[in-house]
Amino acid sequence: MRFANYEKVEIVRVPLLPRGFGTVRLLLNYITFSLLACALGPWKLRGLKFDVVLTYQLSPVTVGLPGALMAWIKNARMAMWVLDLWPDTLRAIGVVKSPLLLACVGKLVGFIYRRCDSIWAQSQSFIPKIQALSGPNIPIVYFPSWAEEFFKNVASRPAPEVPIKHGAFNLMFAGNVGEAQDFKCILSAAELLKAHLNIRWLIVGDGRMLSWVEAQIKSRGLDESVLLLGRHPVERMPEFFGHADAMLVTLADQEIFSMTIPGKLQSYLAAGMPIVAALNGEGAEVIRLARAGLTCPAGNPSALAKTVMIMSALSLSERHAMGKNGLQFSKREFDRIKIIDVAEKYLLGLCK
After folding, report:
1. pTM assigned to the model
2. Which residues pair with 52 in a beta bridge?
3. For residue 31, what pLDDT is reported?
């Protein structure tokens, strides 16, 4: 979406090479944004004064370079919200395999972290990893994600793109179709349950693994049980959730992902949906604490298939109770207004 203003705040853009497909294009996308933001950012923001620079770091971590440069040029403080740990994620999904290159990325990450005045970690488990690279002098705080308000209203008129199948148990995955989400596990579990004709796996989203997933659905004969529903605006997700009996969240069986709270988890909780999760670590612990669904170990198709069967056998009232528990937990732990109030407090604290 291209716009020049958001909520009366001017959006300043720099050119970059689109992601496209393949690792090379992805790396070029990362590099061109960082280089052009560093080269053009100071000119585009000339004459403007800033108290704090906040860097929102999904992938890549190199977004921190223009942030650090602007903080230095403007004599401003810098905060960084870390939602993806590098180089751990690169190692886990196999984008970079060279130990030497991974070590170089680690040095770069440490360089960026040490330019920060405050680092916000999306999970408690991130903090020791960040501290190891930043050193002991950079304050690090737990700062989770939240779900947007529109997720709280699962649509009474479900999305027309989803074919109706009476008597079906619909398990829905909504989000990125990538390596980290472990679609090998999802499709293997779907294959194990192929004979259970009432169970449907609804996939809403797009990503680098989509063509592989499409090919696997055909080769495994899963056309009737696994439906790819395409990419849709995030604001429409409640319409798709309206078709689901439960929501699915998965991450690959890697140490880094056991430290991660998947962003979609907050959305599922806020929507009051029961959850099936193939997760390790902190994400699974959130679901258990919330009593919002059923969990099984990551990367285990048999365990996932068994968990789906258990969820499908529950009564509507039992699943509704899970969803209600998740909603209450979301209001307590991941409320958007509360979290943004905390962010404002942190940022104002840096201005003193």
Report:
1. 0.86
2. 77
3. 85
User: Rounded to whole angstroms, what are the CA distances from 62 to 3, 21, 319?
Assistant: 24, 20, 42
pLDDT tens digits, one per residue of 39-55:
998 999 998 999 999 99
- CA-based torsion, 329, 262, 272, 310: positive or negative: negative
Residue 189 amino acid letter: A
Which residue do the tokens 């370079």 mark? 65
Instruction: Kindly state the average pLDDT of the residues 263-292.
Output: 94
Tell me how far apart the alpha carbons of residues 50 and 34 are, in angstroms, rounded to a whole number.
Answer: 20
Tokens of 126: 């991130």
Alpha carbons 190 and 196: distance in angstroms, whole number? 9
Contact 119, 138 (CB under 8 A): yes
Domains of the chain: 5-31+45-146+336-350 (3.40.50.2000), 149-333 (3.40.50.2000)
**Weakest-pLDDT range from 26-40, 89-103, 319-333:** 89-103
| Extended strands (E) in the chain | 5-6, 9-10, 52-57, 77-82, 118-121, 140-142, 169-174, 199-204, 226-228, 246-250, 275-278, 293-296
d(CA 272, CA 151): 9
User: Tell me: the pLDDT tens digits for 67-114?
Assistant: 999 999 999 999 999 998 888 887 877 777 788 888 898 899 999 999
Q: Sign of dihedral through CA atoms 147, 150, 151, 153?
A: positive
Nearest to 277, CA basis, from 267, 287, 263, 290: 287
DSSP-assigned letters across all residues of 266-335: HHHHHTT--EEEE--HHHHHHHHHHT-EEEE-TT-HHHHHHHHHHHHHS-HHHHHHHHHHHHHHHHHHS-
